[in-house]
Recover the amino acids of this structure.
């Protein structure tokens, strides 16, 4: 059963939030407030929906908070923020279509992009159109020293996977690894990175397998993998609900070993898909500590708006938009994206919603400081809930 609202309902809910915030802002600022549109391109339906909905509504919640204070002030002028979100269904063609509609029809100059495949498809368009692109795509190919308008809103697997695997080495006895990933840009990059890091840390990588994101029956793949007798299966960039499906089917085939997920967090969705018993003891990289009071307040706002639990990534998307808005203020002109791009360095350092320090980095990964460096956590699922057991900076 699909536990996520339909796309039409998603758009309606977001629209009501924007309208309510706009009315409040109007009461505060009168007719003088201008509109600043922020585009969101993300999978709002399907397996990637937990991430996509968190991006959309993390942005909408922050926008409503700013609008309630009268809007974003840039060089003495108030701007009401409007979030315009389109569902790319985790498909390149839909991402391109969404971008074209945002830029050519909606007049958007700032776009938040979720996936690696969408980021790769839009990388050159962003530069050519002088549109600010803020991406959570993890592929290193999406950014280089020549990029001027594309920024990454969180630390990448290259930053946190080594620390994650080192923690596993120090705290777990398992050493025989099978790596599973989707057959796309994200999966290829995570497979290459994970295989290298596990080998460097003294693990034995038995196999690295990929599959299509539409796959539901994993028994043939798992039968092949389990015949190699791994004691650790790395789920890496698999969408959380799909990861839960893999776990459940592997348990049905008799696998008793460890599951870990070193990227793309979503432990609650894993539990929902795998079941409480089968997901017990699964390790997950997290972008947040769910016990943090500020995160709990943000997650409660999301649940009140959308009707189901927020994915952990909501905090990262909220923080990333906050940095973007600060850069727009520092740039001094909402219409001059060149000035805004140059002002990202002035927007940081900044405190995250959890209280960690956000800084600008990325030089060692792709030759330019165009990435927001974030703090990450390691959690284990206990009794259906993720419990933080480690931290990576």
């Amino acid at each position: 059963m699909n536990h996520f609202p339909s796309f039409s309902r998603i758009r309606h809910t977001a629209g009501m939030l924007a309208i309510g915030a706009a009315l409040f802002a109007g009461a505060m600022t009168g007719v003088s407030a201008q509109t600043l549109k922020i585009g969101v391109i993300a999978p709002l339906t399907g397996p990637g929906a937990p991430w996509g909905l968190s991006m959309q509504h993390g942005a909408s919640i922050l926008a409503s908070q700013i609008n309630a204070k009268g809007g974003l002030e840039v060089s003495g002028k108030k701007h009401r923020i409007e979030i315009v979100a389109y569902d790319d269904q985790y498909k390149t063609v839909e991402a391109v279509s969404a971008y074209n509609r945002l830029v050519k029809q909606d007049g958007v100059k700032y776009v938040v992009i979720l996936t690696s495949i969408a980021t790769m498809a839009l990388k050159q368009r962003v530069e050519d159109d002088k549109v600010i692109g803020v991406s959570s795509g993890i592929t290193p190919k999406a950014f280089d020293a020549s990029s001027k308008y594309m920024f990454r809103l969180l630390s990448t697997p290259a930053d946190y996977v080594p620390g994650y695997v080192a923690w596993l080495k120090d705290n777990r006895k398992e050493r025989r690894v099978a790596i599973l990933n989707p057959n796309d840009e994200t999966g290829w990059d995570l497979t290459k990175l994970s295989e290298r890091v596990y080998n460097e840390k003294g693990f034995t990588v038995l196999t690295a397998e990929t599959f299509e994101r539409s796959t539901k029956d994993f028994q043939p793949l798992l039968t092949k993998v389990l015949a190699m007798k791994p004691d650790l299966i790395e789920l890496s960039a698999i969408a959380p609900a799909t990861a839960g499906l893999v776990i459940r089917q592997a348990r049905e085939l008799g696998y008793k070993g460890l599951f870990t997920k070193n990227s793309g967090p979503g432990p609650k969705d894993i539990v929902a898909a795998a079941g409480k018993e089968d997901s017990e003891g699964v390790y997950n990289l997290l972008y947040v500590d769910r016990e943090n009071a500020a995160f709990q307040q943000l997650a409660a706002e999301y649940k009140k708006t959308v009707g189901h639990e927020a994915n952990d990534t909501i905090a990262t998307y909220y923080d990333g938009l906050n940095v973007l808005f600060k850069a727009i203020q520092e740039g001094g002109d909402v219409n001059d994206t060149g000035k805004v791009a140059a002002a990202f360095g002035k927007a940081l350092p900044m405190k995250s919603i959890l209280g960690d320090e956000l800084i600008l980095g990325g030089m060692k990964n792709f030759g330019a400081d165009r990435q927001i460096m974030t703090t990450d956590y390691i959690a284990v699922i206990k009794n259906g809930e993720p419990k933080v057991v480690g931290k990576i900076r």
